[in-house]
Amino acid sequence: MMSMRTREEAVAMLEKLDMTQLISMFDLLPGTLFWIKDQDCRFIHANQLFVEHSGLRCISNILGQTDYAISPPQLARQYMSDDQKVMAGEIVTNRVELNMEPSGEFSWYSTSKRPLFDSHHNIIGSYGFTHSLEQSAQTLSNVEAIKAPVEFVRKNFHQEISVTELAEISFLSVSALERRFKKYLGKTPKQFINEIRLENARRKLIETRLPILEIANQCGFAEHSYFSRQFKSMFGVLPSDLREEVTRKVSTSDLDAIEQDQHL
Fold this sequence. Notes:
Elements: H1 4-16, H2 19-24, E1 32-38, E2 43-46, H3 48-53, H4 73-87, E3 92-100, E4 106-117, E5 123-132, H5 137-141, H6 144-156, H7 163-170, H8 174-185, H9 189-207, H10 212-218, H11 224-235, H12 239-263
Antiparallel strand pairs: 1-2, 1-5, 3-4, 4-5
């Protein structure tokens, strides 16, 4: 048993530690993303792997930003909603969830989050860490019943998909499948199908020059007006406005490239 003096010495040593040195230790954990946020859900620190996973090269591009600056809107809303709950006293421990990779693909992660306290025990922010489960067969086996329908939706989002069909390939009843989706993804199967379709539509709008109507059809939306409403609800912008913004940025980049060539 640790003596009173030893405990006091340990506490004294911790108080002398440089916190930046302590925080930098998270860079040594393989495959682990770590971050700290203030009360307004703005990043005040992130480890190097988190920076790279966000598609950025330097932490200065993250500091002072919220998740909306580095994540798709639907995921940013989810992350910031989590932060608010954590700062209200809720904790998240090893929650299995589906997050987006830099490539745009989705992978399974295990996430933990905690409130951040000052020396007077006031909550001043939150912190958390997450790591990929793709290499952990044992952990993934626990969510195999939901992994199968998730993979099916990712591969077949362009066609008609019913919840009954997803339940059948999962060997679950519809109600059991819906409970699994709520537990691991925080949404219904129908909501998940819709979000996968919309995310793929967003990527096609940015990465291709296909007409918007064709993109809607390719992503499983038969009615254009419904597609536009759903797209704006999820991303806060109409498909036509996003396409216009992308086109404007590309045109500006082309002009910059031409000007650089002229100066060579």
